[in-house]
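Incident review: delayed structure delivery

Summary: a single-chain prediction request sat in the queue longer than the usual turnaround. Root cause was a stuck worker, restarted by the on-call engineer. No data loss occurred. The affected request and its eventual output are reproduced below so the record is complete for anyone auditing the incident later.

Affected input:
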Amino acid sequence: MSQGEWLLVETLGEQPAVVAQGRHMRNFVPISIFLRRNPNLRPINAAITRTLTGRTGLSVETASGNRTIQTEPVIMSDGRIHGVHLWYGTTGTEPPERPLPGAWKSDVELTCSATAQFLVNIGKDPAVEPLTGRSIADDIPTGTFNTGEAEALSWAIDLGPGRTFAANWGFCDDQGMHRRVGFCVRIRLEAGPDGAEHLTGRSMNLLESINRAPLTTDQLAQRVIDGLARPGVHRAIVDLNSWNLIKWIDGPCPLYDWRANPRVHPEDIDRISAQMREELTFDQTSAVLRLPANGGGWIPLHLTINRVELDKGVFAGLVALRLPTADELSAAATPPPLPG
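Output delivered after worker restart:
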């Protein structure tokens, strides 16, 4: 461990794991391995434990008196501690400015909550953005696809307890600035309000850099994305099993309330979900579905869905939404019978 750098230590697993060194992400390295040559590993672990127990930061000297350990907990809005920010250095030396971590949580329905600092780190204004009732698509960069993003998106579909992921992404924020943000996420089983265990995602993030320099992107992929854009059509990636919205490609669709739950009218799910799933075995389907309207009620929208492989056998839906034509709306009012 280099003296002078803050370590972000995730504490939700079986043992504390380093997920950031300074402003640079690390991939869940057990602290016993990360600090295996540090003679003060034991008091550092003790400081982490005391921080978790006391739920507040501390500053302690080692037994020799020539080293100081400082900690700050990273607390999610529901009270769960996601990690401990740790600094270890020469006694009498001031630690560097601390990059502030944010925290984030999603439940089994991918209804998300975030701390104000999490939103600040990704360039969003917590004074106007909701902290609760968010969609995962609120916090995934729109438009460009980053290296490794397919793997990150796949965890939202192929959920499994114990899965972890860490990466850093470059993207253009809402103010037009180019950010590089590191994040980590762990999937866990947690007791829900009903007493049953549910899959839950818990995450932390850090701002690595912010500047006006252009990003290095896959220019061919970006030209394909931009070339397929059409006026009035909004593309997104969804989970084909739950209809959870994962990512907007063209920007959030203003035609309906995409954060609402249920996400599709129950009668439409019962009527055509089997038909659409069968058609998706041939990679594409389309239909007019009633989706939650802004302000309440339902609005019919035409959806074309292509089945795409995100990562190693994990499939999602690439959806194009638009207002239906009069003929499409009329045909949807008298749906054909389900096959079989």
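Verification: The two ends are 64 Å apart (CA to CA).
Action items: add queue-age alerting; document worker restart procedure.
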